[in-house]
Structures are given as C-alpha cells and as structure tokens.
Amino acid sequence: MASLQDIKRRTKSVKSIQQITNAMDMVATSRMRHAKEAANANRPYAEKVAQVVQEIAVTVGGEFSHPLLEKHEEGHRLVLVMAADKGLAGAYSSNACKEAVAAVQDKGNTELIAVGRKARDFFARRGYKVVDSYVGFSEKPNFEHARTIAGNLIKRFQAGEISDVQMVYTRFVSAISCVPQTVQLLPFSDEMMAGQKGAAQETAGPKQEYIYEPSAEEVLGYLLPQYLYTTVYAALLQSAASELSSRMNAMSNATDNAAELIAKLELHYNKVRQAGITTELNEIVSGAEALK
To answer: Do 269 and 197 reside in the same domain of the chain?
Structure first.
C-alpha cells in the first residue's frame, strides 16, 4: 500500500498537470475563436471565386484549353496532406493522416507534400515519398503560405511531373466536430468547369450576360491559378480551426480527468490515513489491556 507521502506527492503532481492543461485549454479556446472567424470570413470569398470561375467556364464552352485543365497520362500522383505542427490535439493529425493513406492508392507511384510536422514525420517513418514539407504555420496560415504551396503544385503539374493532385484537409464543422476530407485539385474536374451549366439552363426568366475584356478565355486563364490559391488557403484555414478546436477539446478532457483523479487520490489518502489512525488506536488499546 502506498504511503501517505507517496499519495500526497502524486496528488501534487496531478494538480500541476491540471494547471498546465487548463492553461492550454484557455489558450486554444482563444486561438480557435480567431481561427473560426477567419475561416468563416474567407468562406464567402472562396465560394464567390468558384461561382465566377464556373460562370465564365459556361460562357467559354468546351473549346477552352489551359495547362491546368490538361490530363496527363504519365507522371506520379501527388497527395497534399494537412496536419498539425504540434501534438496534444487529440486524434486530429492521426485522422488526417489516415484519410491521406486511403487517398494514396499506389504507394510506389504517389508523392506527398506534407503541411505540418505531424504529417511529415508520419509518412517519412512509413517509407512514403515525401517530396516537400511546410511547417511552422499550421495554427496561423496566411495567403502567402497558400500561394507558395499552390505555386509548387502548379509548377510540378505543368512540368508533367505529376498526373493529378489530391488534397487532404480537415473541414471545420463546429467546435466539437471536424471531418477529414479528400478533394481533387488538379486537373480541374469536368464537373467543376461545367459548374452550374445545367442549373443555368433550368432557371427560368432573364439571365445576366457579361462582357469580358480582353476576352472570357483570357479572364478564365488568369482566374484558374487564383482559384487554386483560394482553394488551398480555404483548406489551410479550415484545418487550423479544426486543429485548435481538437486541442481545446483534448485539453478540456485532460483537465476534467485530472480533477477526477485528484478526487480519487484525496479519497484514497483519507482512507489510508484513517486506516493508520485505526491501527494506532488498536495498538494503544492492546498495550493498555496488556498492562492490566
């Protein structure tokens, strides 16, 4: 049986851990609020860019060609996976990595670009071909980070090194719900380029027509890379909010578990102390009886 000193020492240790997890919970809550606001503020812009690209694609028709629309028969597949730089975020990084593993259909013919130390280390330890990694900004991404990542993808795709690009990120649903998702980035799918063509044909009433200068083709050619930048940036923001919400929940659960453990230790301490007192009383009574 543990001594009173051992129980007191362990209780003190758990209380110190509880203070740390509680502080981390408050920090993650504050950062998650800002990340959530950033993701929500970016969503209308990303949706509008996608809508504009789709509308121009319908105007241009099927004769339009662009390097980002070409389908390459040769070249490696590439998976862009986004995870955390730090731990203590529950199953956030492991779930994203599992989703990426499912997206890697052929390990020998697939390259990976990892965003976050957890994703980089996970795939490097398992023998996957990690061709590039970006670390240090998983909690606070900005548009330049997205531009750098997307620019790398565009360069490799146009050079014919890769045939298609899949992106794995975690979509932020709420403070307690985050869902890993896989989306195709390159080449742009026919469904994305067709956009709302069918819906536009079914819509009754007058339709808006736009005049593009210098031409719809040139405007669409300029917007396609911008659309890719916007898509990657939106995914980075969603992943950051998901990471921080997962860390907030993990630290909150750790704090609650520490409180339960402290209560159990204090109860155990009182039982051991009471047993010690009872033993001493029995010894005193036995000694008194022996003296009679």
So the answer is: no
Q: How far is 288 from 282, CA to CA, in rounded Å?
A: 10
Tell me whether residue 192 is exposed, middle or buried, using C-beta atoms within 10 angstroms of its C-beta: 0 to 12, 13 to 18, 19 or more.
middle
How many structural domains compose the chain? 2
Provide the residue range defining the domain that includes 253: 4-25+249-291
Largest CA distance in the chain: 116
**Beta strand segments in the chain, E:** 76-82, 110-115, 129-134, 162-174, 177-186
Residues in CB range of 83: below 8 A, 6 or more apart: 92, 93, 96, 97, 114, 115, 116, 118, 119, 122, 138, 239
Burial class (CB in 10 A: 0-12, 13-18, 19+), 93: buried
Give pTM, 2 decimals: 0.86
Answer whether 170's CB lies under 8 Å from 243's CB.
Answer: yes
Phi, then psi, of 208 in degrees rounded to 5? -80, 140
What residue type is assigned to position 209 of the chain? Answer: E
Residues 178 and 125 in one domain: yes
Question: By C-alpha distance, which of 129, 95, 92, 102 is closest to 114?
Answer: 129
Residue 280 lies inside a defined structural domain of this protein: yes
Q: Is residue 30 part of a domain?
A: no
Q: Do the domain assignments include residue 208?
A: yes
The amino acid present at 77, given as its one-letter code, is: R
- Give, as one character, the DSSP assignment of residue 69: G
Segment 179-229, tens digit of pLDDT? 999 999 988 866 555 654 444 444 445 556 778 878 888 888 888 999 999
Radius of gyration in angstroms for the set of CA atoms belonging to the chain, rounded to a whole number:
29
